[in-house]
Write a structure and sequence with these properties.
This protein is of the alpha+beta class. Helix content is 33%, strand content 33%. Strand 2 and strand 3 form a beta hairpin. The termini are far apart.
Length: 150
């Protein structure tokens, strides 16, 4: 059965999301790929503390993550796409080697579940909403106590 316009758009968004993950995050390309994939007027719906506006603000946050977790690796587990948006369930892993949001390096390895809802226009990401398991991250870093099992 031939693809419809909606099927093609959905596949295109999956390709763009995968490219963002592989080239920008896992490939650490905050220059060429970032400019190609992320719109200059990008909006982060739930910004990190102190995150500036636009593509430059996102690049600063990612640079900070790369410094804190130099081996950071992002893996997409599942996606849902509709219209101009794609939601992804992902896991990112890394070793805490530098300061992260005021937390000094612990050397702990973490694995964090994350959900994103991204919007694309003209082949570029225009907005994103990142929700991640912050309690799980802080527990793995030793900042919060591990839950007790009775």
């Amino acid at each position: 059965m031939p693809e419809t316009g909606s099927d093609t758009r959905t596949q295109d968004m999956r390709v763009l999301l995968q490219r963002f993950i592989e080239e920008v995050i896992n490939g650490r390309d905050l220059d060429l790929a970032m400019k190609d994939i992320v719109a200059e007027d990008f909006v982060e719906q739930i910004p990190f503390p102190g995150q500036g506006p636009g593509r430059a603000g996102l690049a600063e946050v990612l640079a900070g993550l790369f410094a804190a977790f130099p081996d950071l690796h992002w893996t997409i587990r599942d996606t849902l796409a509709e219209d101009d948006r794609i939601m992804a369930y992902s896991t990112w892993t890394g070793t805490h080697r530098g300061e992260f949001m005021g937390i000094p390096a612990t050397g702990h390895r973490v694995s964090v579940d994350a959900w994103t809802i991204d919007r694309y226009r003209n082949g570029q990401m225009t907005e994103s909403r990142l929700i991640m398991d912050v309690a799980g991250l802080l527990t793995q870093l030793g900042v919060l106590p591990a839950p007790t099992v009775s």
